[in-house]
Design a protein that fits this description.
Rossmann fold; 7 strands; globular
């Protein structure tokens, strides 16, 4: 049964910002949902997965790095970030009628920041997970829509954290994110929208381990010889 946002002739218009495998998987899931109309995507110009799929279905593209309110399409109901590193400014975030959701590979509010999976491994967390949240002015601080968890194999703690983070992302957290985004969209379609504020008592934030052009003593300590 359609919820109050729809009638028999209207579909949910979504815009997706993303890249690579996760962007492709989310885009494909939205394309194959008969109640959803993908009106545009934002992805890298040379993206061979999400970008190629968008081209196949003749979905308009905005190049990554240029996502702005003044070029954002009209009539969008929901914005979705799926492995996107494009910052969604306030003006752009307010363009979709229902708001904008994104996926973060951690149990928010823990491990906010770009290197969340790697930090969970470096800190030897036994459990991590993924969170779909409503974007706001903060970084990874919006209300939680959907969340799930998974164990981290203790064997990962003795291996290279960056390599283990890539494995955990590919094998567990990326498919979890696709599923959670689809579940969240399903909730929206059914009218049971969830917005649970993050509990600040448990929040953590760690810097990106990939940033090399900024002097950060904490990053230097990561690569220091163990004594």
């Amino acid at each position: 049964m359609m919820h109050e946002f729809f009638d028999d002739e209207k579909r949910l218009n979504v815009f997706i910002s993303g890249q690579k495998g996760m962007g492709e998987d989310v885009l494909r899931a939205m394309i194959h949902n008969p109640i959803i109309n993908v009106v545009g995507v934002c992805c890298p110009i040379d993206d061979r997965r999400m970008g190629a799929l968008a081209d196949t279905f003749e979905i308009p593209r905005i190049p990554s790095g240029s996502l702005r309110a003044d070029i954002f399409p009209n009539g969008v109901d929901l914005g979705i970030s799926a492995h996107s590193f494009d910052y969604v400014g306030r003006a752009t975030r307010y363009r979709p009628r229902l708001g904008w959701i994104g996926y973060h590979p951690s149990l928010l509010p823990r491990h906010r920041g770009r290197s969340s999976i790697e930090w969970a491994i470096r800190m030897k967390d036994p459990i991590t997970g993924g969170t779909v949240f409503w974007l706001n002015d903060g970084i990874d601080r919006g209300d939680i829509a959907t969340q799930d968890w998974c164990f981290i194999d203790p064997a990962m703690f003795s291996e290279d954290p960056r390599e283990m983070a890539a494995i955990l992302w590919r094998e567990t957290l990326r498919p979890m994110g696709v599923r959670l985004i689809c579940e969240t969209v399903g909730h929206i379609l059914s009218g049971s929208v969830k917005r649970i504020p993050q509990d600040k008592r448990f929040s953590t934030w760690e810097p990106s381990t990939e940033v090399k052009d900024i002097y950060r003593p904490d990053l230097l300590l990561l690569n220091a010889p163990k004594t």
